[in-house]
Amino acid sequence: ILSGPPGTGKTTLAHLLAIETDSELRTLSAVSSGVKDVREVLAWATDTIASGGSRPLLFIDEIHRFSKSQQDALLPDVEAGVVALIGATTSNPYFAVNGALLSRSQLFQLEALKPEDIRQLLIRAVGDHQRGLGEQQVKVQDDAIDYLARASEGDARRALSALEVAVLSCKPDSAGVTREIAIETLGSRLGGYDASGDDHYDLASALIKSMRGSDVDASLYWLARMLEGGEDIRFLCRRLVILASEDIGNADPQALGIAVAAMQACEFIGLPECQLTLSQTVAYLALAPKSNAATAAIGQARRDVRENEIVPVPKHLRDSHYQGAAQLGHGEGYQYSHHSEDGVAAQEYLGVDRTYYQPVDRGFEAELRQRIDKIKKRLNGS
Predict the structure, then answer these.
(1) 203-221 exposure pattern, b = at least 16 Cβ within 10 A, e = fewer
(2) Looking at the chain, which residues constitute the CATH 3.40.50.300 domain(s)?
(3) Fold of 2-109
(4) Where are the alpha helices (DSSP H) in 21-155?
């Protein structure tokens, strides 16, 4: 399984493997092929081996587009060695490829090409008279090549396609391909953004971690990347609301209200104006004091509920608003907190000693820590 971003050479590697091993290569695209096409190729491969031929290669491009049943159809013949399967995917293979198929495969992760690598490819394409653009006799300026190498985001195919369009749009006696022409032909820098693929999750992760880390500029950059890529505004708003509770909590209680207000404003305003609301909110959340005390507290409390003995509700806290409750002792001895000093009644509320919420010494939670100390003294009757 060859996994990696577009334009990193997955298809080229498959063809090189076929040449190197002197094997016949059959290619299918998971976008346009189905189980019938797969079975036809597998039947051909079986006949090839039966007639004394060598094991052929089956290359399936964008294998993540195959459903589970389509991928399952490959398993018997792959296990039997009828074909050597090469699958290419731009998605995370652990999410997109069947576990059974993945466990029988060797996974290779291809990285996005570096700008210098793409620059060399572009220079070679400009000067190649047989397979490149050398016959066009069009000058390509260095700053145009530099721009294409940097802005193609590691995608060699995209850079080469943009170069070809730029060269073919220039006359031999013109100034050639300038940086301005390169910018125009490359188009949107994030045209390849997949709002449902790895880009979606990686950029969302970078945005959340940057806000959690209080780097406001990094946070705004990742927000801009997602907006330019056409990310769903509702997804962004949900993540901001979650972060306000998960990573800020009561260190700044206003954060949750601001995030919720931003979500409502974005729904009301829509793009492009709601980018202003998102920018304001991301900046506020990034710079707010941080605490995960509430997150840790509910996590520990739920673990207690799942793993430890269930604590019964103390009788004085049970519902007493029905006939016969008094005979059961429900509500007996309950102290109404508003009748007590500081509004805190000295009584048991759980019956066992537990400490879940431990506010940090930052922001408003620093004040809450002092309140907790006072409240615990009152609860203990001291």
Answers:
(1) bbebbbebbbeeebebbbe
(2) 2-109
(3) Rossmann fold (3.40.50)
(4) 35-50, 68-72, 75-80, 93-96, 99-103, 115-127, 142-151
What pLDDT score does 27 carry? 92
Residue-by-residue DSSP string for 246-302: IIIGGGSTHHHHHHHHHHHHHHHH-TTTHHHHHHHHHHHHHHS----HHHHHHHHHH
Bond preceding residue 5 cis, omega within 30 of 0: no
Residue 25 DSSP SS3: strand
- Identify the pLDDT of residue 197: 64
According to CATH, the topology of domain 115-186 is Helicase, Ruva Protein; domain 3 (1.10.8)
DSSP 8-class letter at 159: H
The answer for residues whose C-beta is within 8 angstroms of residue 285's C-beta and 6 or more apart is 211, 219, 240, 243, 244, 248, 255, 258, 259
From 267, 276, 149, 288, select the one nearest 212 (Cα to Cα): 288
pLDDT for the residue numbered 194: 61
φ/ψ of 61, rounded to 5, equals -80, 140
| Domain range 309-379, CATH architecture | Orthogonal Bundle (1.10)
pLDDT in the model for residue 341: 80
Run means of pLDDT, 10 residues per run, the chain, 382 residues: 90 94 91 86 91 91 88 88 91 85 91 92 90 85 92 89 92 83 78 63 94 97 91 93 97 97 92 94 98 96 89 84 80 84 83 90 93 87 69
Supply 111's token pair: 């990285």
CA distance 56 to 43: 12
Domain with CATH 1.10.3710 in the chain: 309-379
107 φ/ψ angles, rounded to the nearest 5 degrees? -100, 130
Contacts of 109 (CB under 8 A, 6+ apart): 3, 4
Cα dist. 96→84, 103, 105, 336 in Å? 20, 13, 14, 57
Domain with CATH 1.20.272.10 in the chain: 198-287
Assigned CATH for 198-287: 1.20.272.10
Classify burial at 3, counting beta carbons within 10 Å of its beta carbon; exposed 0-12, middle 13-18, buried 19 or more: buried
Q: Taking each helix axis as running N to C, give the angle between helix 156-168 and helix 142-151, from 0 to 180 degrees, rounded to the nearest 10.
A: 140
Backbone angle region of 333, left / alpha / beta, with phi > 0 → left and psi within -120 to 50 → alpha? left
